[in-house]
Amino acid sequence: MGASKVPWLGSRLLRCWSHALYTYSQGKPFGHRGELGQAKRIVVKLGSAVVTRGDECGLALGRLASIVEQVAVLQNQGREMMIVTSGAVAFGKQRLRHEILLSQSVRQALHSGQNTLKDMSVPVLEARACAAAGQSGLMALYEAMFSQYSTCTAQILVTNLDFHDEQKRRNLNSTLQELLRMNIVPIINTNDAVVPPPEPNSDLQGVISIKDNDSLAARLAVEMRADLLIALSDVEGLYDSPPGTDDAKLIDTFYPGDQQSITFGTKSRVGIGGMEAKVKAALWALQGGTSVVIANGTNPKVTGHVITDIVDGKKVGTFFSEVKPAGPTVEQQAEMARNGGRSLAGLLSEQRGEIIYLLADLLTERKDEILAANKKDMDLAISTGCLSQALLKRLSLSPAKLNSLTIGLRQISVASQGSVGRVVRHTRVASGLELEQITMPIGVLLVIFESRPDCLLQVSALAIASGNGLLLKGGKEAVNTNTILHQLTQEALSVHGVRDAVQLVSTCEGVQDLCRLDKMIDLIIPRGSSQLTLLVHKDLLRSPLFDQIVDMLRVEGVKVHAGPRFASYLTFSPSEAKSLCTEYSDLQCCIEVVDGLQGAVEHIHKFGSSHTDVIVTEDKETAEQFLQQVDSACVFWNASSRFADGYRFGLGAEVGISTARIHARGPVGLEGLLTTKWVLRGNGHSVRDFSEQGGMEYLHEIIPIQQPLPEQRSTN
């Protein structure tokens, strides 16, 4: 019936849609992933590729069970969960195929009177019939799975007409609201047994039609004013070009208007939607006030925690946001650091030294700006009480500390000469075939440091000297100080056109998200704090020496935590340590009792950090056994653990202490930030030349390296 024949019908429809659109536009989506943990009402959409098996006949039960578990966990946290699911057609197809094959085998057996069965073929099954046969079984499966977590479910089947009719739409809304109020998880699906084929281009202005479960989930999320829609499919998220192509890159955050720069591929192996349909539905939901994440629900490595990871704000899939960041994303910063680092490595060593020397000069020239920024951080930290006295001391900068930093930077400038591209081994492999091992930068470094802004300068200088790109992640308590110091670093880098080589991450990415950038970052260096665990031989517990140690700790204001064995010796013990691995980052330490050397070594290997361990004893034999058996990076006898430092070892500045067992270990300075490459120069040589028929022989002669620099000679 046309609107021209019934003129009032068109205006009534417009009024209904206008009312619906007004209802939908309430609320504001989250601007950043870190806010997703605040989501109260969540819709999880399970695409056909997620729910069904690879043969498209039957359900992926293990995958579905892990998804149900995550939904139940979030539901039991007090959130309101809804599921929009596919799978009825696949479940029904499996059931009908079984029935058809069974029926054919019975008829064949009756007809032939024999047990030998001929090959049986299954006719093409109509989707609506499969849906009708599969809906009840699919729902029964959901009920059984959710019952394991004491969670009740309810089934709701909808069609596009349920959203077109205002009364039906209100009834649907009311039903869902009541189910959520009763802590029931609604399981929603299109009624594929009766739904008509989707009409192309049938969306009305401001309203999305229900063509598939993507549009259903978006429509439902907005209708129910959900905070978050999680759409699970068989791809990691949204790519800038079809997944699988060489240059395809996963888009972490997608903004309205970005679809013009996207090349969409074909739809998934099952279902009637594709990525283009998902993006359209996601943008419509975003406009309606619901945040959206599209992620992979089929990857066995992440399926068991993909939903909870998204709610926790982790970088999973593609997050749709209306809030564009003021600066580059962390992925873009990592790319800038890599490209800038390559340009930095291409400079002469004298040019890299000039950059560091200029940075030292800028510290002196801009001292007042630096101290003013640091005062802002200190005032805020003191007023909020968010930092301990030990951390406040680290945060604080003074003219004397800046002067020491300036001296240190100039020392690094001198030490950087000849560090990159230095020949460390030269071999004549054969006549006319020579091999060199040459130092080169590692690539891109990620350094994570706590409230210690002087670390930014030291690490930046070492990265520049070694030709490495650098990503810096500092604590928010030092944001003002870090910002000015990074600005000065980039100002110095600009002298030789490599400003982007050092990047300061100012976005809200967590450490775990940064660590996932494994294709862009080559080495991660987390800066820790001073941690003490004090082990005492049991024979010293009642001695004057132990009393002196305890009195000294008390006078210095150190809070003592008792290990479980130490606590058992005392009538009134200090607070018992919750963990023997705890790093207190404050004037606190744990005391535990051991029976002897072997007990101490075993304790260190079990609970220690492999950083620095010290033995205090007058027994040389015991000490030597300790030094040999403990496999930490630094092991001392009767010397302070604070000697574990690159400067005190005579290595110059350091980026930290490495507890790794390959490459660099212990204090990592300039040398530890370099790797090597092998350069072979020949004249048409081939391996066949050295076979019995080739006539050439390997020489492997070591050729003396010409004129090494003084600071290199001691390390070769």
From TrEMBL:
Domain (Aspartate/glutamate/uridylate kinase) ranges: 40-296
Keyword Amino-acid biosynthesis (UniProt): yes
Catalytic activity: L-glutamate + ATP = L-glutamyl 5-phosphate + ADP; L-glutamate 5-semialdehyde + phosphate + NADP(+) = L-glutamyl 5-phosphate + NADPH + H(+)
GO cellular component: mitochondrion
Position of the signal peptide: none
InterPro entries, alphabetized: AceGlu_kinase-like_sf, Ald_DH/histidinol_DH, Ald_DH_C, Ald_DH_N, Asp/Glu/Uridylate_kinase, G-glutamylP_reductase_CS, G5K_ProBA, Glu/AcGlu_kinase
Entry keywords, A to Z: Amino-acid biosynthesis, ATP-binding, Kinase, Multifunctional enzyme, NADP, Nucleotide-binding, Oxidoreductase, Proline biosynthesis, Transferase
GO molecular function: ATP binding; glutamate 5-kinase activity; glutamate-5-semialdehyde dehydrogenase activity
Record flagged with keyword ATP-binding: yes
Pfam families associated with the record: AA_kinase
Superkingdom of this protein's organism: Eukaryota
Gene Ontology biological-process entries: L-proline biosynthetic process
Protein's pathway: Amino-acid biosynthesis; L-proline biosynthesis; L-glutamate 5-semialdehyde from L-glutamate: step 1/2; Amino-acid biosynthesis; L-proline biosynthesis; L-glutamate 5-semialdehyde from L-glutamate: step 2/2
EC number: 2.7.2.11, 1.2.1.41
Family the UniProt entry places it in: In the C-terminal section; belongs to the gamma-glutamyl phosphate reductase family.
NCBIfam families named among the record's database cross-references: proB
Name the UniProt record assigns to this protein: Delta-1-pyrroline-5-carboxylate synthase
Phylogenetic placement of the source organism: Eukaryota, Metazoa, Chordata, Craniata, Vertebrata
